[in-house]
Specification:
This protein has 9 helices and 9 strands. It is of the alpha/beta class and 189 residues long. Strands 1, 2, 3, 4, 5, 8 and 9 form a 7-stranded parallel beta sheet that branches. Strands 6-7 form a two-stranded antiparallel sheet. Strand 8 (129-133), helix 7 (136-148) and strand 9 form a beta-alpha-beta unit. Helix 1 (4-14) crosses helix 2, helix 1 (4-14) packs parallel to helix 7 (136-148) and helix 3 (49-59) runs parallel beside helix 5 (79-87).
Amino acid sequence: MMRRDDCLRAIARVRGEAIVVATYQAAFDWMRIDPHPLNYLSIGAMGQASSHALGLAIGLPDRRVIVLDGDGSLLMNLGSLVTIAGARPANLFHFVCNNGCYEANGSHPLPAADQVDFAGVARAAGIREVFQFDELVQFAAALPEILALSGPVFVNLRMVPGDPSPQDYSYIHSEAARAAFRAALATAP
């Protein structure tokens, strides 16, 4: 089984100047692994990372938008998959960190975690490019081809948590974080 921090490092190596929308535990790990002004940290609105990423992808069609979602977070807003499929943003890449629990809320297990097929749900919602990985070598090797596809693309990453990251809520909720993101958008090509 893959570790989340290893998966995120693989994404960081190929992200380029993509906007990355990360939520909860993935956001904390992402801040440690790839601090960048084009990181949009979606904390405090569980389930909304995919919707925030969709808005950015539609509003900035010339920019790649990567969302780092959690399985528990996605369960809070499964309807976003249908909306994403309907909007068909070619620049949206949705990665789900699937560890079978609500890690941000005490690691409580997801209901029916061993039965939920997130890749199947994404396909049923109408997303055409859907992948699933549970081995890091295969995932890392496939990433360049995945990011070359026309989206929306959905990738279910079956994983376990990695090394713990500092949980700096004060930065994530700060005006400085929002100002850095706005400034990066204004100066980005």
